[in-house]
Task: structure prediction
Amino acid sequence: MAGGTKVGGRREGRGWPLLSPAVIVLGIWSVVPLAMTLWYSTRYYNLLDPGRHFFVGLRNYDLLFSDPGSLTAIANSIILVASVLVISLIVGTALALLLNAEFPGRGAARLFAISPFFVMPPVAALIWKNLLLNPLNGLLGWMMGLFGLPVIPWFSTAPMVALIIIVSWEWIPFATLILLTALQSLDSSQIEAARMDGAGPLARLRYIILPHLGRPVAIVVMMETIFLLSIFAEILTTTSGGPGDATTTLTFLVYIRALLDFNVGGASAAGVLAIVLANIVGLFLMRSVARSLNR
Amino acid sequence: MATLELRGVRKTYGTGEVVKGVDLSIKDREFVVFVGPSGCGKSTLLRMIAGLEEISAGELLIDGVRANEIPPDERELAMVFQSYALYPHMTVAGNMGFALKMAGKPKAEIAAKVAQAARILQLEALLDRRPKMLSGGQRQRVAIGRAIVRNPKCFLFDEPLSNLDAALRVQMRTEIAKLHQELEATMVYVTHDQVEAMTMADRIVVLNGGRVEQVGAPLELYRNPASKFVAGFIGSPRMNMLEVAVAGHDGAAVRLTLPGGESLAVPARDALVKTGARVTLGLRPESLNLADDGALRGKVEVVEHLGAEMLVHVRTPQDDLLIIKAPDEARIHPNQTVGIGINPARSCLFGEDGLALILRVDALA
Ligand SMILES: Nc1ncnc2c1ncn2[C@@H]1O[C@H](COP(=O)(O)OP(=O)(O)O)[C@@H](O)[C@H]1O
Ligand SMILES: [Mg+2]
Result:
């Protein structure tokens, strides 16, 4: 179909002038910062030492990898992302199943279950830090006290757990929302057929409902991973990456290097590492999502 | 294998009653069809039998045992859904064997039973496919196979053919009828299509607005409808209805005055018909013929040639539309005036309440 190709080609050609502004803006938007990051990552550039500014090759990377803190940061990032993913998927599925059932006040319950999503991250983190997890006047401490349990100073003894709790709380609604809409698209006669085939509630969950949720789960994993890798405000407002580097993720490491150490070169190198990590994870996720979508 | 009995079964949703007291007894190995217009409660009735809906009042007996409280999987019934309701992420074999797997049967037994059902339904080549990769007719067969594998007491079908195209529907109709003979199973089949009901049923249950209008063999309903509703619903093209007056009685016949003023004697053994009453005369299209000296006259509006026969739509001067089934011939044209002869032997009379006035003892003769 030579004619068809020609028509198609002409069409593309005609569309280019209209498309180009958007494409160019998008290109500048993503390419320029990336290029600058790469460039700075090969230079000695410290804001406290503004006079000296020179090419150092891969020395910034060398320093980055020889610093045990970097590996901790990568590990922290992965622990945070993976834990929040698992928690938000499990709790999100449970909530979605619950909210999909018929009961009086379901509309209000749905709204409440979704509402944490609308709370800004710093606000959410502050609420958790000062009102819920605070060992002296926090709700959780008070409740544990009622049962005679020891009060835990969350942010000093189990800072990563506390952080995971906060971020999970923020992201459970997203998972719930996506999974709930997926549940609503499940053909009810499939459930009825399974009921007649002798499948109890657990078997229906295992053989009918969970397989139906395969795609939305893949989408939740992908979306949440992208956003969770760049979690920042929650860390800054609660632990500031500490105690020590217990909650310093790769994102937070970049911040420490750039704005606390004023080391632009080192921060850029860490940034490049973060980009590489995100792309590896992204590639892996895209593949698994594509596979589950093709099923 | 199984008998079903419904005693005063009712279903209420909120304030509205959808099924308004159904009494019915279904014999072993019988093929019973529930037929009625959309929304009359057929599916609800079937789903109550299946156990998917609670029975609001009344009693369901399976093999003589009260089954109201028995959960659906323990009733040993199998249902084929209109949407097929196949499990999309399981293979055909997985779909068909699911109930046995849930019952904890050994793998070898499941495989053997699935293979046997697949042979009956010619699905052997498709056992490893997923439902997505099947045509509508094949999906329907898998849904039926899933029911067969369970070896149920009774099969329940809810409009299983309505998603298929016309040709496939005719084919599946005969296949299900054949299956009924092979499996010697009790079957309850829901449809809104009276042709399906007529061709498949041992007995038809005509439902209207949540009530049973009439129960009977297809020909019995066709020849001796208990009400105007049944008369109009069963048979295609529809029965012709004429408003007539009762002129008097002639021994075993009732004399009627037709809309044009002509008189017609209808045999009626026990006529409840009072002289002077206004009644409805029901005439099947094949009880009418084209005759120049006929009792009625009218203008031809449409001629439908079917090959062996034709359907002639005639408008009478009184604005009644009559459909006549006659041997196909070319000489009839639209706008032509024709005479219509009436064969009164199979006519029906309905009172103002819509109920049949003559019980035809000869209905099946
Ligand atoms: N879950 C329900 N809640 C309320 N009304 C219902 C429900 N299911 C069915 N109905 C009503 O019951 C009537 C009969 O429905 P159904 O049995 O599905 O009819 P059909 O004869 O077409 O199969 C309809 O008027 C429908 O609106
Ligand atoms: Mg229905």
User: Anything to note?
Assistant: The pocket of magnesium ion (ligand 2) is lined by residues B 42-43, 159 (CB under 6 Å). The helical segments of chain B are 42-50, 92-102, 107-121, 136-149, 166-183, 194-200, 218-223, 228-233. Chain B has eight helices and 20 strands. Residues 4-232 of chain B form a domain with the Rossmann fold fold (CATH 3.40.50.300).
